[in-house]
Amino acid sequence: MSRILDIHHCRPTYSLIFFTCKSQGSNGNYLTFKKKGAAKSSLRANISEVGLNHIIDRCAHKVQEDDGNAFNALPHVKRLSELKKDDLFGKIVMVRFDSNILLEENQNQNSKTFISALVTIKYLHVAGAKVILISSWSTKTNSNLDSLDSVSAYISSLLKLKVLPMKLCHEYELTRLEESQETHTPSIYLLENLSQFKEDIANNSRFSQELSSGVDIFINDAFFQSHKTLASTVGVTSFCYASVAGFQFEEGLSQLKKAFETKENPYIAMVGGGNLIEKAAAINHLVSRSNGLIFVGNIAFQIMHALGFSVPNKYLEVGAFKEAIQIIKSANSRNIPIFFPKDFWCMNDQFKNPKLVSGHCIPEGWTPFGLGPNSLEEITTLLSKSKKIVWIGPVKFGLSNQDSYGTSILAKVIGKLSEENCDVTVIGNMACKALMEESMVSSNFNIIENASVVWEFLKGRKLPGLMALDRGYPYSIDWHTIYADPDRPLFVDIGSGNGMFLFGMATKRKDMNFLGLEMNGKLVKRCLETCHLSGLKNGYFIETNATSTFGLIVSCYPGKLVFASIQVFLQSDIEGVALRMKEEFLKYGNGKFIIDHQEEWLKENPFGVKSDWEKHVLDNGSPMYRLMLSKSLRE
Q: What is the pTM of this model?
């Protein structure tokens, strides 16, 4: 059983206090952590005497995500649903919500995304957290919401709870928030519109710190903004104890995963819209996963041009020819069909009546505005044979901003197929709107209105808003593969950096196992390579934010573990920081911690091995301020 010493009220700039355990009869385990967002600090915890028996599932790899390699750009992240209400009580929690979901004037309030957005806020409120809502919005989203007061009143009506407007870093507002925290009164605040601050779009670090001032936990509940690098979704995660996914975020992530799972075949991707150059990488991904592609937008003209058909110059994208050729080659290599319209309905300024023309040769002066009957018949036949359909982008030809003729017909066909157990995902505002208007049963298909985040995912790019969140586990950890003897006592170094401290300890203490937890993936990779090259059998490193995953990782360490006491070692190269850490431990340790030495600061590191930062500071001739605290516990 792992224990957590929670010092949430003061929100220091370093991250957390955790500890691990030691086997009965050994010399103890230790835990270190680095200060977050300021001068580096470290902590050691020596534990003995507590019983734990955990057995983990074995897997082929040392550390493996449940989804294998199918969704490398979609890591497991810590979720709000994993936090107990006791963990949230009295905490200041900032929620970044999606205004396009919560504030949309004609929003479907029965949709899963809308309901889950409300559930996030209500869950936190019921748990006794102090909730600060943040987002950016405009009157384009809802013409009735033109001020902070009007938005707070609107959200109040949705939640059936009072939402108080709050200005950014206004002294009165901060005082009111602190007072509500002291009285443990649940409250909900709405921060002013972030669209007023260019620093949000720039992901300005100082603005991020100001925005998250006083915040314990950050909840990202705007999954469909994950492709953007914003201060309000990415920057703030550097200044909060924990950064986790809200219920709407979790729902959006689930929708994205469901959209591109390829369990059902034949799988057909229907691609609309234009801008092939920007979307080429994404379309190539669809070619690699699907059993056929249908192009029903301006991208079709680029494919037709690459195949040698005559296409009016005004419909051709500069530089798209090469990308179209590559898509055709990729499809041919997999022997999958590519469909493009065989006929169009066209109009001409000189003639009132539309004309049906061959897709192979559109006359100059005629503008396509819809799919012809032969095209619709061929698409319908191909779709009807499918078990899985992904429709992304509008059926839109030419320069019009409106859906083209044939959209409603295809929407009816796809809606009917969804009722016949075909796995249907529709992506993009125009495509979703068309399907919702023609289908009576919306629960049969997967709706993703924001196409931008999907295109970024299909291009193989990591989503900044997702990657900024704390990594979660399920991870399968095969301790028997990692260590020669996983029953030895475990030493955990949180914020292991370049691994110098851990390597030194692992070399010195062969009777123990050593685990480094580090957020920087490049450093972790380098340390693992060093472990492999040196043949180290009692050391390993994992890329993670230990603030939220430490207990989950260590709790599955095999063997009988016991603990008797805790020692906490604090050190910093800045005296003021060390003093603050000391004061906070003594204040929020409920009188259970005592200073373990007579002098004000320890002159030497009691463990005999220096951390990376400690060595750097001392090599530069600067002092380190060290302190050892002790705490006795009995079970």
A: 0.70
